[in-house]
Specification:
- This protein is of the alpha+beta class and 156 residues long.
- The chain has 2 domains: 73 residues, 2,3-Dihydroxybiphenyl 1,2-Dioxygenase, domain 1, CATH 3.10.180; 67 residues, Roll (2,3-Dihydroxybiphenyl 1,2-Dioxygenase, domain 1).
- It is 24% helix and 29% strand.
- It has 4 helices and 9 strands; from the N terminus they run E-H-E-E-H-E-E-E-H-E-E-E-H.
- Strands 1, 2, 3, 4 and 5 form a 5-stranded mixed beta sheet that branches.
- Strand 7 and strand 8 form a beta hairpin.
- It starts with 7 loop residues before the first strand and ends with a helix.
Length: 156
């Protein structure tokens, strides 16, 4: 059996704040939201955390699906700020039309970036790394990371 992509999940400190952030900046809409907190043996088995209770929500734009979970009991410590050098640290990549414009506008709104936009080493695209409300790195690019012709070769 060949696995296929389903979704990515991030643990957040404030579910409502993160829902608003990913909707406002990336157009991800709530497509499934569990109305009650989950706890008990199944949550313990899936998370490996004793006494855990969590809320979850799935956001999507029809192509990319992001699950957000907030531990309402047994929440771990926050890992704030750029942590791209930590083993296991994620980042999410999104394409935008004009990275430099987005950088100027979103910086003015208070969104944190690791630095100003840079031109890729191939010289074909601007990119910048920003942070979500919990410090997760988000890469903004003007071109896709893997062009269609490379994808076609992999899928052939």
């Amino acid at each position: 059996m060949k696995p296929s992509y389903d979704h990515m999940c991030l643990t957040v400190s404030d579910l409502e704040r993160s829902i608003a952030f990913y909707d406002n900046y990336f157009g991800l809409k709530v497509v499934r939201r569990d109305p009650r907190a989950h706890s008990g043996a199944l949550v313990r088995q899936m998370t490996g955390v004793d006494g855990a209770e969590l809320m979850s929500v799935f956001l999507s734009d029809g192509h990319f699906t992001l699950e957000l979970i907030q531990f309402t009991k047994a929440q771990g410590p926050a890992s704030r700020g750029p942590t791209s050098n930590n083993v296991g640290a994620p980042h999410i990549g999104f394409c935008v039309d004009d990275v430099r414009r987005v950088y100027r506008e979103w910086s003015a709104e208070g969104i944190a970036f690791n630095g100003e936009p840079i031109m890729s080493s191939r010289g074909d695209s601007w990119s910048a790394m920003m942070l979500d409300p919990d410090g997760v790195c988000i890469e903004l690019r003007e071109t896709v990371a893997v062009p269609a012709e490379m994808m076609a070769a992999i899928l052939a």
